[in-house]
Amino acid sequence: MKVVELMNKNVTTCHPDEKLSVIVNKFELFNIAGMPVVEKGKLVGIVCQTDILKGLKTGNMQNLTVKDVMVTNVIFASPTESVVTVAKIMVEKHINRIPIVENDSLVGIVTRGDIIKAVAESG
Predict the structure, then answer these.
(1) What is the pTM of this model?
(2) In this prediction, what percent of the chain has a pLDDT beyond 70?
(3) How many C-beta atoms lie closer than 10 Å to residue 45's C-beta?
(4) How far is CA 99 from CA 24, 62, 67, 106, 112, in A?
(5) What average pLDDT does this structure show over 100-116?
(6) What is the homologous superfamily of the domain 3-121 according to CATH?
(7) Which residues does 118 contact at the CB level (< 8 Å), separation at least 6?
(8) Does the pLDDT value for residue 122 go beyond 90?
(9) With 90 as the cut, is the pLDDT of residue 95 above it?
(10) Which are the contacts of 117, defined by CB distance < 8 A and separation ≥ 6?
């Protein structure tokens, strides 16, 4: 199975200059725990709840922005990558989501939950 078959194509993203208070609201509104950071159409980072918690040790939610806490060395995959390969990367790197990039553009995201759901539905 290829990633394109189970990736979420309606990706909630944010901008590096958004305040963390806005991001926490997005997490709650969209029932997500992390999202890609995009600037001028390009993937520049990823931010999750853990990154925000770490950031709060050095500042507060009203003053910190996404760029203060985001991970910039983003692990991503192509839509044609196998789900097994992506799952192995998640386990090895201890990450829960992988942005899917094609021709330098964000086209989707795959989470551990997406993989578990696909496995459960396959019987």
Answers:
(1) 0.91
(2) 100
(3) 21
(4) 19, 27, 17, 7, 12
(5) 94
(6) CBS-domain (3.10.580.10)
(7) 1, 5, 6, 83
(8) no
(9) yes
(10) 6
* pLDDT the model gives residue 114: 93
Determine what percent of the chain falls in helix, strand and coil, rounding each to the nearest 5.
Answer: 35, 30, 35
Structural domain boundaries in the chain: 3-121
With contact defined as beta carbons under 8 Å apart, do 46 and 97 qualify?
yes
CA dihedral 109, 56, 39, 102 (to 10 degrees): -20
| Inter-CA distances, 31 with 6, 23, 34, 107, 120, Å | 18, 12, 9, 20, 21
Pairing between β-strand 97-102 and β-strand 105-111 as defined by DSSP bridges: antiparallel
Given a contact cutoff of 8 angstroms between Cβ atoms, the answer to whether 90 and 98 are in contact is yes
86-123 in b/e burial notation, b at 16+ Cβ within 10 A?
A: bbeebeeeebebbbbbeeeebbbbbbeebbeeeeeeee
In sequence order, what DSSP letters do the residues of 46-100 get, joined into one string?
A: EEEHHHHHHHTTTS-TTT-BHHHH-B-S---B-TTSBHHHHHHHHHHHT-SEEEE
Q: Under a CB-based contact definition with an 8 Å cutoff, are residues 89 and 75 in contact?
A: yes
